[in-house]
Design brief:
The chain is an all-alpha fold and 125 residues long. Helix content is 70%, strand content 0%. Helix 1 (4-15) packs antiparallel against helix 2 (20-43).
Length: 125
Amino acid sequence: MPAQSEAVLVGLLLAGDQPAWLLVAVASLGNTLGAMVNWWLGRQVERFRDRRWFPVKPEALARASGWYRRWGHWSLWLSWAPFIGDPLTLVAGVLNEPLWRFVLVVGLAKTCRYAVLAAITLGLM
């Protein structure tokens, strides 16, 4: 389900029991680690593509591959977006995106998403 981590983050921010920066950092780290699993699955795509549990449908993988081939690693700035983010992170692995650049771009994109969400929730925006 999309937006689960966002709902949890908003709830924790509203509870006010933890510093906002810590909540944003933990959410960003967890989401980035999840994207790294997708990147790894992309590297292993030929072994796992036909498994029932594989996280991306063939049509979504084809669409994300076309997007990624056109825009390259810049498309990873959309890794935060529901429905397209997971296929993009998987395709980055399929197309051998270097892990260091993947982590850098995806980590920044996801951190920006949570920081903006926190700012809106706390009335800073």
